[in-house]
Amino acid sequence: MSRADNSADASPAPPSYLELRDLRIHFPTDDGLVKSVDGLSFRLDRGKTLGIVGESGSGKSVTSLGILGLHNRRNARVSGEIWLDGEELVTAPPDAVRALRGKKMAMIFQDPLSAMHPYYTVGNQIIEAYRIHNKVTKAVARKHAVDMLGRVGIPQPDRRVDDYPHEFSGGMRQRAMIAMALSCDPELLIADEPTTALDVTVQAQILDLMRDLQREFDSALIIITHDLGVVAELSDDILVMYGGACIEYGSTDDIFYRPEHPYTWGLLSSMPRLDREPTERLLPIKGTPPSLINVPPGCVFSPRCPYADRTGDRAATEVPELLETRAGHGGHGGHGGHMVRCHMPPAERRSLWENDVKPMLETT
Amino acid sequence: MSAEPLLSVTDLSKHFPVTKGLLKRQVGAVKAVDGVSFDVMQGETLGVVGESGCGKTTTGRLITRLLEPSGGTVVFEGQDITHMSQKRLRPLRRDMQMIFQDPYSSLNPRHTVGTIVGAPFHIQGIKTEHGVKRAVQDILALVGLNPEHYNRYPHEFSGGQRQRIGIARTLALKPRLIIADEPVSALDVSIQAQVVNLLADLQEELGLTYVVIAHDLSVVRHISDRVAVMYLGKIVEIGRRKSLYTAPLHPYTNALLSAVPIPDPRGRSERERIRLQGDVPSPLNPPPACRFHTRCWKAQDVCKTVEPVLAERADGHQVACHFPENAPAVPDGVPEPTAG
Ligand SMILES: Nc1ncnc2c1ncn2[C@@H]1O[C@H](COP(=O)(O)OP(=O)(O)OP(=O)(O)O)[C@@H](O)[C@H]1O
Ligand SMILES: Nc1ncnc2c1ncn2[C@@H]1O[C@H](COP(=O)(O)OP(=O)(O)OP(=O)(O)O)[C@@H](O)[C@H]1O
Ligand code: SF4
Ligand SMILES: [Mg+2]
Ligand SMILES: [Mg+2]
């Protein structure tokens, strides 16, 4: 599947720090081909935060592992383009991609225990990571590790640096993992459910920390979560994923105040909210998320969509394109504006939102 | 409200021994639940919230007698069941069922849905009018599953459907009280809403009483009539949903509520937040007196020496704190020590 030979028609490097073009990640399995990511495109600049939301199995983690080049090429079929600071990674040799990890891009994993080695102290793991990219003595690297642990709010970092991961509490481990990910000052940081395993008071501390650190290091940040509250707190832009593809993309305001995809409406209305008077009933999305082996034909969301019959047969036969519904209003990362993948005409969607959906969310 | 509570828990505790070495010498105890009291009235929903490890699940398991209490009493339907033998407990078990946290591990993968949901009929020897199969199919329909799913296996279902199977199993015996331990936390938001609505419908239809244990404060607010907040094995605040959420009395409740991320990006800059420092201390060595004093911004010396008792401060709203929030100041600073 090498694309090196047709480099003549490869597209030119984009201006954004990170750009995905039609990324596809498929896994051949005994049950069939799992299309975990199927045609994903987005852009992200340094200093900006992109939130990726979606239900379990929508392809969020597979995407992030794909960007870092962490899929095993023997069982994952990766195609499309991933441009990071002018370099294309899908066709790049694995060694070249590996060299970018740590310094250019780093990841915070959902489960810190699985990402940290149990037999090495927290400090040693940060020191090793730092010394791969920086020619410094052990002593200098150690001082850096202590600094980083202090920065992420570990008390008495000069003592705790010699602890093993299991000696840290859940919240401290997540902080240590952030310290490790940030130790080489990465330009792109991907945080995959960084707070899902944590208690709400600790989650709040970690979200503050990520916000501060991103400002300070001016990195590009991708935050992956199923919690709409978390993305609302941190993101400039939001990408809503469903069944391996983006179904809506826009500024945080677009997604929360003028969403146009019925799935996004469903997410917003199925969630109980602390900031509103409690409603009598929640408004769930009927049915369950799609199988990625037998992806529903036409619009992936059509079997669950209450408006599917408004577009006749098209819902079940034709895959809707991701189209711009409102131009980007520059200054806001400014990318591509508000994009929606739905057969309904924009005017119809907007009227449904204003007249049907939004009032339901606000009634008590 | 003078009616008898359906469930009454008084000073309930569970201390797990911590042992060391080959001889299993006891070196300490995890005070997982340490003096918890509350009542649940027929037909109401009590929500129990708190951070990981505060003792929510242990409380549920003590009430249903899956664990033997170390102290205190549990009175259900007017009978003291705290140390009742399993034999005498059996008829009462029907009336009190537990829904478990994990819809994946709580169903036997080798049994069909029919066997799983029908098991309680056989175990309890319940007579059915039209046979067990028909009764099971009725329950499947009640929880929104297709009665034709009778011969299918759990792995053929999604998480939300498995949670429905779990609920169907508890309903088989027509219980009066259901203890639901994180019934929706393993589910996606869209499915979560389906199960939350189902629980509400069943409550209405069958007159069920719920104790719902969860860490998600928004879900708990949605489904509860009253809410209890736990911290390190103790209830620190309990009250009606509305007063607890709009005017929390305990600093911890206030901090918890203010830490929840709100899906309203415009408000994010002006929102006032209380940021607690550090993590929850270990239940092996909980801080003395008020267990929250190590993280509390209002703590005074008295908080480190005198344990605040759970006392009513507003109508039906109790708090265990020397300096509660949203409440008139305690006269003369030093409150009375624990009354005997
Ligand atoms: N190595 C693999 N082989 C086959 N299928 C895979 C593999 N890795 C992931 N998948 C499948 O790809 C889909 C997307 O998985 P992914 O982990 O990206 O979901 P996610 O959106 O991160 O979900 P969650 O919110 O549960 O973390 C799932 O259906 C998963 O089973
Ligand atoms: N069988 C046991 N033996 C020893 N300690 C236990 C046992 N069961 C629970 N504990 C401890 O008791 C405390 C309370 O646990 P419990 O499971 O009740 O917490 P929880 O509030 O349900 O937490 P979570 O939100 O994580 O489910 C914890 O510190 C736990 O480690
Ligand atoms: S008793 Fe003191 S330490 Fe405890 S919550 Fe109240 S003010 Fe804080
Ligand atoms: Mg994931
Ligand atoms: Mg629990």
From TrEMBL, chain A:
Residues 18-268 form the ABC transporter domain. It comes from the Bacteria. One of its GO terms (cellular component) is plasma membrane. InterPro entries: AAA+_ATPase, ABC_Ni/Peptide_Import, ABC_transporter-like_ATP-bd, ABC_transporter-like_CS, Oligopep_ABC_C, P-loop_NTPase. One of its GO terms (molecular function) is ATP hydrolysis activity. The keyword Transmembrane helix does not apply. It holds the Pfam family oligo_HPY. Keywords: ATP-binding, Cell membrane, Membrane, Nucleotide-binding, Transport. Belongs to the ABC transporter superfamily. This is Peptide/nickel transport system ATP-binding protein. It comes from Sinosporangium album.
UniProtKB/TrEMBL annotation, chain B:
CDD domains: ABC_NikE_OppD_transporters. Residues 7-257 form the ABC transporter domain. Keywords: ATP-binding, Nucleotide-binding, Transport. Gene3D superfamilies: P-loop containing nucleotide triphosphate hydrolases. InterPro entries: AAA+_ATPase, ABC_transp_ATP-bind, ABC_transporter-like_ATP-bd, ABC_transporter-like_CS, Oligopep_ABC_C, P-loop_NTPase. It comes from the Bacteria. GO terms for biological process: peptide transport; transmembrane transport. SUPFAM superfamilies: P-loop containing nucleoside triphosphate hydrolases (SSF52540). GO terms for molecular function: ATP binding; ATP hydrolysis activity. Belongs to the ABC transporter superfamily. This is Peptide/nickel transport system ATP-binding protein/oligopeptide transport system ATP-binding protein.
